[in-house]
């Protein structure tokens, strides 16, 4: 009986195996004949599917013979359903027709560069982002793009992270989401910790290096990052993503969408939670976020409402690691108070319209509102009462002038406004003109509270020891045009006028009155040429001007009569890019000439706070090379290299001198010195190997050259060069009843490189054996050694 049953089971298995078939095919655009990358192919009832590759090809295996109902969908195209009979000898070709519904690309067109735009850029789609999106912040996901250096306070890429591009820090990188500015109006920075797991709601993003074409926002002063959130899904879907990794890191994401309802409406939503203990001691992160989008999609009009929010609590690791602990205690955290935390929530509301008027016009308009509020809490040992505007305390005839204090420093701000643009394209396609502009207001309260004091004196809980307000109005209007002078030759021009009114008043955190009002008017022109050859090469050259006002601390820390001058950048870009078959490349030269760039010099104000000062002349010049080559069906290699010089022609450094009875500062003048945090060499490489279908193995390397912690170019105040290597393994299958099951393993820093991409320094003189001695103190933000993240993604 056992033998009979075994033989019967074997026969059934063999029959079942014989009945399993494979279906291969290609999905194309019916109009252009181009392959559609990322199209969804699904077999109804059998519950198996695939996604098309870079050539539009797909393969679905383990199908039962007989009739199969095949459903093919792709954003912007009509869904196709047809019955296929298996087995099938020849490959299937399906041509999808573009949908009559208006697509959403124009929402970001005013901030985007196109193939013929004479500037330097890279566009990254959703699929590429998803390969690394296991919980780390957006800067870390972009680590292998050209000229980028990333860092993380907690050392693991979760929490406070930032990036620089060509040495320009986060406050000089303009960020927009759907064309709406995201940089803080006062500090000019973007804090990705307030946008946890935002990459899970991004359809694509474009990085522009140099001034670029971005037209909204204050920080277009070195690079820009233009993000478009998820676009319409024609079919209902659900997705569950979970990741786990080193340092007790977890990411949980749930996404779902209705697909098109009545061929007009769609709703999409995401809910995320990310937690991590961090590499640095106690540097935990507890991050929550959501994203909801609802839209009406017509043939000529689209209206969308996006609501998204992020709430974070992170333990502070801002102090950094003293140089003395680099060798034996890399996870050291100066802070030990149990609630030394940063707490902030930011809510965003975007109402977006885009429409088509006739055959020649498209329009876009958006209203936005952002509400941010939160604080960071600090334990301060033996702080002077005078620092809080408080009198000394008399106890038993003894005068007490200091005590231990716990304080909170608050931000409570509103940012709102609108942007709009109109696009005209001539019938012959030779003119492409956009007229647009925006107006925005920031209204921010800054205040500090004493929530506890060991010796309270005349204080009450939540007494405000400083309180000030700032209102900033920012408006701009621009006209940009591309004209085809002759076949393949395009002339580009962009004229922008920007005006700023900034008012601030009240008591600063150093107890000084900071009342002031300033106005700026800037003209930012851009011009360029591009030439497209028959072989697919595009040659380009451009000249662009950017002006930027000082940030908040430049006003509040400097005496009001000595406010720094605005910065000015003249940017020249020239290069060639091409994509031909299996090979794509971009070679670019840039020269960024700064006038009145603002830097820290060591100079202090009347209460001892360090201030930024203008330096007359400085520049960044370099060559960027990037390329990608498909060696075979299984092997693809790619990489990029930036070689640059980043110089300040002359500046004066001020060093504190405590070697005499009366405090003073000594001045040192430097010529042709390196700009801080601007490595002369940045390179990365990625090798992808696909040994079998659905399995991808990636080796990723990153090299960053030596960086200086300040502008003195002193070896004793520098960051060592580093070379890291990561491994990424991706396996994707289409099991029954799932559209996709995907496993991702990311092992970072596999050779356990000990490195620090960021830090700070200060020097001072003290009495010494021979008169005085120069002391230099360096602090670093170390990154984790070998660590991993493992993710499971289920799509329904």
UniProtKB/TrEMBL annotation:
Mode of membrane association: Multi-pass membrane protein
TonB-dependent receptor plug domain segment(s): 116-222
One of the Pfam families matching this protein, by short name: CarbopepD_reg_2
Signal peptide: 1-19
TonB-dependent receptor-like beta-barrel domain span: 329-750
One GO term describing the cellular component: cell outer membrane
Subcellular location: Cell outer membrane
Main location: membrane
Keywords: Cell outer membrane, Ion transport, Iron, Iron transport, Membrane, Receptor, Signal, TonB box, Transmembrane, Transmembrane beta strand, Transport
GO molecular function terms attached to this record: siderophore uptake transmembrane transporter activity
Family, similarity comment: Belongs to the TonB-dependent receptor family.
PANTHER family: FERRICHROME IRON RECEPTOR-RELATED, FERRICHROME OUTER MEMBRANE TRANSPORTER_PHAGE RECEPTOR
Protein name from the UniProt record: Iron complex outermembrane receptor protein
Native species: Algoriphagus iocasae
């Amino acid at each position: 009986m056992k033998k009979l049953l075994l033989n019967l089971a074997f026969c059934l298995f063999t029959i079942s195996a014989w009945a399993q078939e494979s279906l291969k095919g290609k999905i194309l655009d019916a109009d252009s004949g181009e392959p559609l990358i990322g199209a969804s192919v699904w077999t109804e009832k059998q519950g198996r599917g695939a996604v098309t590759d870079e050539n539009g090809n797909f393969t679905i295996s383990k199908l039962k013979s007989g009739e199969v109902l095949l459903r093919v969908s792709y954003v912007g195209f009509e869904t196709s359903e047809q019955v296929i009979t298996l087995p099938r000898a020849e490959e299937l070709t399906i041509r999808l027709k573009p949908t009559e519904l208006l697509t959403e690309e124009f929402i970001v067109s005013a901030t985007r560069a196109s193939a013929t735009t004479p500037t330097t850029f890279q566009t990254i789609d959703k699929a590429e982002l998803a390969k690394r999106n296991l919980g780390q912040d957006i800067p870390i996901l972009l680590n292998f793009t050209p000229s980028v250096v990333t860092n993380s306070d907690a050392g693991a890429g979760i929490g406070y992270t930032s990036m620089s591009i060509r040495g320009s820090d986060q406050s000089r990188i303009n960020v927009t989401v759907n064309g709406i500015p995201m940089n803080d109006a006062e500090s000019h920075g973007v804090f990705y910790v307030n946008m946890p797991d935002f990459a899970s709601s991004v359809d694509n993003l474009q990085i522009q290096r140099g001034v670029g074409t971005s037209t909204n926002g204050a920080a277009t002063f070195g690079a820009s990052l233009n993000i478009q959130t998820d676009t319409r899904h024609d079919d209902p879907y659900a997705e569950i993503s979970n990741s786990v990794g080193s340092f007790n890191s977890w990411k949980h994401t749930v996404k779902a969408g209705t697909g098109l309802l009545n061929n007009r409406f769609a709703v999409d939503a995401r809910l995320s939670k990310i937690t991590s203990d961090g590499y640095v001691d106690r540097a935990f992160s507890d991050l929550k976020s959501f994203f909801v989008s609802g839209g009406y999609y017509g043939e000529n009009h689209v209206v969308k409402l996006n609501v998204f929010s992020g709430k974070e609590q992170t333990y502070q690791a801002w102090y950094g690691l003293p140089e003395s602990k680099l060798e034996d205690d890399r996870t050291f955290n100066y802070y030990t108070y149990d609630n030394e935390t940063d707490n902030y929530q930011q809510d965003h509301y975007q109402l977006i319209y885009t429409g088509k008027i006739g055959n020649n016009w498209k329009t876009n308009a958006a209203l936005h509102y952002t509400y941010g509020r939160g604080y960071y809490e600090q334990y301060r040992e033996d702080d002077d009462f005078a620092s809080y505007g408080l009198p000394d305390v008399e106890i038993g005839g003894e005068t007490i002038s200091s005590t231990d204090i716990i304080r909170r420093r608050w931000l409570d701000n509103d940012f709102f406004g609108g942007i709009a643009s109109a696009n005209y394209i001539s019938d012959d396609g030779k003119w492409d003109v956009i007229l647009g502009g925006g107006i925005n207001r920031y209204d921010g309260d800054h205040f500090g509270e004493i929530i506890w004091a060991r010796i309270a004196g005349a204080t009450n809980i939540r007494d405000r020891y400083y309180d000030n307000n700032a209102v900033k109005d920012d408006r701009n209007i621009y006209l940009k045009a591309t004209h085809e002078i002759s076949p393949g030759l395009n002339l580009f021009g962009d004229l922008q006028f920007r005006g700023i009114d900034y008012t601030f008043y009240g008591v600063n955190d150093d107890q000084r009155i900071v009342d002031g009002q300033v106005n700026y008017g800037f003209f930012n022109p851009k011009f360029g040429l591009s030439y497209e050859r028959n072989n697919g090469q595009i040659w380009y050259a451009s000249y662009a001007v950017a002006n930027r006002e000082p940030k908040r601390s430049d006003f509040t820390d400097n005496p009001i009569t000595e406010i720094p001058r605005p910065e000015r950048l003249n940017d020249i870009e020239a290069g060639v890019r091409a994509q031909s078959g299996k090979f794509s490349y971009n070679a670019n030269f840039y020269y960024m000439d700064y006038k009145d760039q603002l830097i820290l010099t060591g100079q202090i104000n009347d209460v001892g706070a360090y201030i930024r000062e203008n330096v007359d002349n400085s520049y960044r010049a370099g060559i960027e090379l990037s390329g990608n080559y498909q060696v075979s069906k299984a092997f693809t290699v790619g990489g990029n290299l930036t070689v640059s010089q980043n110089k300040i022609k002359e500046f004066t450094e001020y060093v504190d001198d405590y070697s005499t009875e009366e405090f003073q500062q000594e001045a040192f003048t430097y010529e042709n010195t390196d700009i801080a945090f601007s490595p002369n060499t940045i390179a990365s490489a990625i090798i992808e190997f696909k040994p079998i279908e659905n399995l991808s193995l990636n080796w990723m390397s990153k090299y960053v050259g030596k960086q200086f912690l300040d502008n003195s170019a002193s070896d004793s105040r520098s960051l060592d060069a580093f070379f890291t290597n990561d491994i990424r393994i991706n396996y994707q299958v289409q099991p029954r009843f799932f559209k996709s099951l995907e496993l991702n393993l990311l092992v970072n820093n596999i050779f356990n490189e000990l490195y620090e991409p960021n830090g700070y320094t200060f020097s001072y003189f003290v009495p010494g054996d021979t008169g005085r001695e120069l002391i230099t103190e360096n602090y670093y933000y170390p990154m984790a050694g070998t660590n991993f993240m493992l993710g499971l993604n289920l799509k329904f």
